[in-house]
Every structure is written in C-alpha cells, then in structure tokens.
Amino acid sequence: MSDFGFLPDDPDKLQSNMGAVAPGRGMALITGFSMYTGGKGEYIGSQHELELEIVAWSDQSCVAATHTEGIWHADKEAEGSDKKKNYAAQIATLVCASGLLKLADIKRMSMQEINTEGFYGKLIGRPVMIEIAARPKKDDPTKIYHNIAQYGRAIFHVKDPRCKDWPKNQNIFNAKAHMVGD
Question: How far is Cα 108 from Cα 69, in angstroms, rounded to an integer?
C-alpha cells in the first residue's frame, strides 16, 4: 500500500481533518476497549485503547468519525505525583459515564475486578458524552494532539445536566437509554 493511501480522493479536502475528530463536544458510542497492542518494550501492556464513534458533534463534519484514546496505566501527561490515580480516575469516569456502574459500586471494587476483558466488553455499544480538546505535545509544541479533555476525564453520562445543550443523536439516545440508566 502507498504511504499516501489514506489521503482523500478530492484535493479540496486535503486541508480537512481527514477523519480526525476536531475539538468540540457531543455524543459518541463506545465501539472498542482493549489492551494497547502497538508500541515496544515498556509500552506493551501499559495502556488501554478506547475507541469511540462520533454520533453527534459540534462540528457536523466529524459525525461518523472514529476517535481512539489511549488510557495509560501510569499517565505521563497527568498532573500530580500519583499518575496511577489518574488512570483509576479515567477508568471510573468511563465506567460511570457509560452507566455500567455507579461510583459507590466502583469504590467497593478492586482494580483487578474491573481490569478484565469481560468487564470492559460490557462497555461496548454504550453512548457517552465527550469533550475533545487540542493540546500541544510537551516536548514539541508544534505537534498537536486531540484528546479527551480534562486529562481524559471529560466523559459524561448522556443524561448529565452539564451536557444538556451538547449535540445528541436522539435516535441513539432513545434506543440506548435502557443501557445507561440515570
């Protein structure tokens, strides 16, 4: 395959985001959650990949795009001294936002109970509200990443009042409401 096979056929679209999700807010479906399989050495087994399909977005051109978010077990970008706490907070945020468990339930569990493929498989197909922000790479500010805001914790329940004015796909909201509860 050519190194340029990913480019759009229409030359007018070369300046577009070419499928990347632009910074903004909206509704997404969780389409995957797995252990990171890329990388080498210390990175193997040190990250999960969250895959999301955008179903409603502040920039309509991003609808149907896929966003992949890395959730590092010891997040190098997180503020604070205990980076493993950021990982636990990201996992708890995702699980609560998806409606799979309430925070009180998670607090009674150990990470070993949650950190299983069977458990994470229950996330697939659930809608969440997310905010994606642009951030420069720390050691090379010319490189810009689009990540879930608030250090990966800007993931909200579809019925969260903070997201009431965010774009939603009402058909998906209605069809999946039984999965996410209140």
Answer: 26
R_g over Cα of the chain: 17
Separation of alpha carbons 91 and 143, rounded Å: 26
pLDDT digits (tens, 9 = 90+) for 86-123: 778 888 899 999 999 988 888 888 777 777 778 889 99
Phi, psi dihedrals of residue 168, rounded to the nearest 5°: -130, 150
90 contact partners, CB below 8 Å, separation of at least 6: 71, 75, 151, 152, 153
The structure's pTM equals 0.81
> Could you give the CA distance from residue 140 to residue 39 in angstroms, rounded to a whole number?
20
CB 62 within 8 A of CB 72: no
> Quick one: 22 exposed, middle or buried, by C-beta within 10 A (0-12, 13-18, 19+)?
middle
Least confident of 7-11, 161-165, 175-179: 7-11
For residues 148 and 133, what is the distance between their CA atoms, to the nearest angstrom? 6
Match 């790479």 to its residue by tokens: 137
The amino acid at 54: I
